[in-house]
Amino acid sequence: MSDWWYRNIVEPGKLPLLLALVSFVLSFLVTRIITRMIRAGRGPFGNVKTGDLHIHHVVPGIVLTVIGGFGAVAAGQHSFGSLVSAVLFGLGAGLVLDEFALILHLDDVYWSEAGRKSVEVVVLTAALVALVLGGFLPFGVNELSPEERQNRVAVVLNTALNFFFALVALGKGKPRVALIGTVVPFVALFGAVRLARPASPWSKLFYKRRPRTRARAGLRAFRHDRRWAGPSRRFQDLVGGRPDPDP
């Protein structure tokens, strides 16, 4: 076990990334537990206020992220400082992305339907970091052999091709697929070759005079949403708490 740990985590320099990921997930989960307790009126916790000003936890999150980020840049890769900086960065990032919806809407939508975006972004971020930690590199560079990596032309072409697939998937209204596809190229290719979402820029541009394709895209999107919307919402409610009902 110790040999595996050193060979796969310590030697490649992945320990800071692992610590950042663990800190990020724990920061988010602990924050959600505390906010749900505050919402329910349980426990010793409460909102932090200065007079009438409610200080959201994104504020200390930004401070920790800045300290951790600059600390990581200043510290050596295998130094103790890099490990501490990674933990601080992960803690701060968890606090910041837990209020991603607030930053996006510039409004306190934490317990509204719009607040679900925070949970979704946190899950996507954790998944992407875990993939990178597992050995996947952005835009499919990990699929190149050592000899091919020495060939700069092959690396550039491979990166450009995978970036193109991810961009097409994004244009087809599939941001999650595009984001994961930057790390796992096959996912980007899958999203690029399939039909676009009805309201996507790709659909408006290329399906405008193709009613059959537009109808097929709408039917496929309807079936996909009907199949996955329920499980997705239940998972978000389990992790982040159920939003308040609309007034």
TrEMBL record:
The chain crosses the membrane at residues 15-34, 55-76, 82-106, 118-141, 153-170, 177-196. The keyword Iron does not apply. The keyword Membrane applies. Signal peptide: none annotated. Keywords: Membrane, Transmembrane, Transmembrane helix. This is Integral membrane protein. It comes from Streptomyces boluensis.
